[in-house]
Design goal:
This protein is an alpha/beta fold and about 350 residues long. About 40% of the residues lie in helices and about 15% in strands. The strands form 2 sheets. The chain has an 8-stranded mixed beta sheet, sandwiched between helices. α5 crosses α7. The longest helix has 17 residues. It starts with 10 loop residues before the first strand and ends with a helix.
Length: about 350
């Protein structure tokens, strides 16, 4: 789909925020962060709902405001949806949460940094005060893949108190299906060329000059380890939940990962109560998702139905890649709920 040139274009403001809570983080990542903010045509942002876009792994928020070939970036998509009356006007923030390990799960971590705190205590007030948008009952969060995971976890932990609507596209759920033993075994095979050293692998990755596809996949596993089971005594705070020689699961380590699995979190009564406070909760996933997220998504749907938690669940015939078109469904749903 190409951009609709017949609808008025909104404005994207590029702001910078010095994140106090991000200073002196273990990875040495910059604490000064870019936040792009979309304001629809004919508005200054005042009294509009606020949506926050959490992007997937290997991206930062401004990736969604960049020019896009043969398609729409997210501001152009919003222009079309708002300009044609498919959704009411909203402000949308695109925070840059990229890290040295290639991305983010949007939770607080002793290795990755306190990203949950940054988003809620620093980014939200910064944007809302600048544009007069959002506020209690008027905030939504959405994302795809790792960003979808972030939206789910924020809804589970802060539904009703911070966020009033959430949408997850192909979000990480069902860790046994997603991070199965074969994934860890593949990472160990790759580490053979780096003397079985996570530090050696990361230093070689950063030195370049070119990363292989498998490098990125291993880096993703290390980023998840730093998010769900950080160990500040290790290089970049990373440790895997398996024995590096035998690939046997280390139950103590793996249990730390599972505590962050939405399938486990949704069993907690406080998380269920948070979800019940949402005005809208949307989940979707492709039925041939190559990372197996559809299976965890189906189990999550069953658990939500059993608990009587209102939500919208959809499957579509596609895989995990290039599914931004699904925002044509989620963004209007969120905007209407918050308006």
């Amino acid at each position: 789909m190409r951009k609709d040139h017949d609808v008025p274009a909104g404005t994207v403001h590029s702001l910078w925020l010095d994140g106090e809570c991000l200073k002196n983080n273990l990875l040495g990542d910059p604490s000064r962060r870019r936040i792009d903010v979309y304001v629809p045509a004919g508005h200054d942002g005042r009294n509009l709902p606020l949506l926050v876009d959490l992007v997937g792994y290997t991206a930062g928020g401004p990736a969604h405001t960049n020019w896009k070939n043969y398609g729409e970036n997210v501001p152009e998509r919003l222009d079309r949806l708002i300009g044609t009356g498919a959704m009411p006007p909203v402000v949308v923030a695109f925070p840059d949460c990229f890290t040295r390990l290639g991305g983010n799960q949007y939770v607080d971590s002793a290795a990755m940094g306190p990203w949950e705190t940054f988003l809620i205590r620093e980014m939200l007030p910064f944007v809302e005060e600048r544009f007069g948008c959002g506020g209690d009952g008027r905030r939504g969060v959405f994302g795809k893949s790792s960003g979808g995971y972030g939206a789910m976890v924020h809804a589970l932990r802060h539904g009703g108190s911070v966020w009033s609507a959430a949408a997850s596209h192909s979000g990480d759920v069902g860790f046994e299906y997603l991070y199965h033993l074969g994934e860890f075994a593949g990472a160990l095979r790759h580490l053979v060329d780096h003397t079985m050293s996570i530090e050696a692998f990361l230093r070689k990755f950063e030195a370049g000059p070119k990363a292989k596809d498998k490098d990125w996949h291993v880096l993703m596993l290390l980023a998840q380890a730093a998010s769900f089971d950080p160990d500040p005594s290790q290089f970049y705070g990373v440790r895997l939940p398996v024995d590096l020689q035998t690939c046997e699961i280390i139950e103590e380590r793996w249990s730390n990962w599972l505590r962050w699995d939405p399938l486990r979190m949704v069993d907690r009564s406080e998380c269920q109560e948070n979800l019940r406070k949402l005005k809208a909760f949307y989940i979707d996933c492709g039925d041939i998702d190559q990372y197996n997220m559809v299976y965890g998504s189906r189990i999550l749907r069953r658990k939500l139905e059993t608990a009587g938690i209102p939500h919208t669940y959809e499957e579509f015939h596609d895989d995990h890649s290039s599914v931004d078109y699904r925002m044509d469904i989620s963004l209007p749903l969120l905007a209407r709920a918050l308006s």
